[in-house]
Amino acid sequence: MDTLSRRHWIFDLDGTLTVAMHDFDAFKGAHGLPPDVPILEALDAMGGPRAASLHVRLADWERDVAAQSMAQPGARELLETLAARGARMGILTRNTRAIALATLEAARLDGFFTEALVIGRDEAPPKPDPAGAVALMRRWGAAAGDAVLVGDFLFDLQAGRRAGAHVIYLDPSGDFPHRAEADRCVTSLIELLES
Questions:
Q1: What is the residue-averaged pLDDT of the chain?
Q2: Residue 95 near residue 20, CB atoms below 8 Å
Q3: In this structure, are residues 192 and 165 in contact, taking their beta carbons and an 8 Å threshold?
Q4: Any transmembrane segments, and where (predicted)?
Q5: 3-19+70-193 maps to CATH 3.40.50.1000
Q6: In a 10 Å sphere around its CB, with 0-12 CB exposed, 13-18 middle and 19+ buried, how is residue 97 labelled?
Q7: Residue intervals in the chain for CATH 3.40.50.1000
């Protein structure tokens, strides 16, 4: 099956539909979090009042980044093409739904997604857990083989693979360090329009 003919599309947001702007290492360094543990997992392991305080700081930082969001090259064209073909589209992010919606608005991509189809860390366990992807597919009544998950990070790819979706790995650098987790690798969303 050719990629664009699939009817159900799940997108990561930051670094996939929008240009990557988060400096996670800087946030971890500034707040004394372990450099080799993802932020959400580090806060979950920490627990207590300090974790609660850092969750607030994290949300503030994410909100600031969201306000500066820019669409990834080819994102609007891809979404317009999929919408014209009648594809169903959702977002699966490790961010909160509210911040994801603000990101979409700032990047002028908000018209393609309904709020209910934006799954954040409050609606499902964060990626690499596949629960959010599975929830979207269930809402659509989609078979896993007809679903595509597009992401730029290992956790995106793992979530898509575990959910049974066709996994597309976006890496503008062309390095693809997690190539083994993907069905297809692209350096630009525009490449998907050429398939």
A1: 94
A2: no
A3: no
A4: none
A5: yes
A6: middle
A7: 3-19+70-193
pLDDT tens digits along 5-41:
899 999 999 999 999 988 888 998 999 999 998 898 9
Of 18, 109, 112, nearest to 68 by C-alpha is 18
pLDDT at res. 1:
58
Per-residue confidence (pLDDT) for residue 195, from 0 to 100:
66
Task: Give the separation between CA 161 and CA 154, rounded to whole angstroms.
Answer: 11
Q: Measured between alpha carbons, how far is residue 46 from residues 2, 30, 59, 61, 72 in Å? A: 45, 16, 17, 19, 34
Asked if 61 contacts 30 with a C-beta cutoff of 8 angstroms, the reply is no
Q: Per-residue pLDDT tens for 105-137? A: 999 999 999 999 999 999 999 999 999 999 999
Cis bond upstream, residue 128 (ω within 30) = yes
Does residue 2 have a pLDDT over 80?
Answer: no
CA separation, residue 74 to residues 17, 29, 61, 81 (Å):
9, 33, 26, 11
What the block records as the tokens of 12 is: 């990561």
The number of residues making up the chain comes to: 195
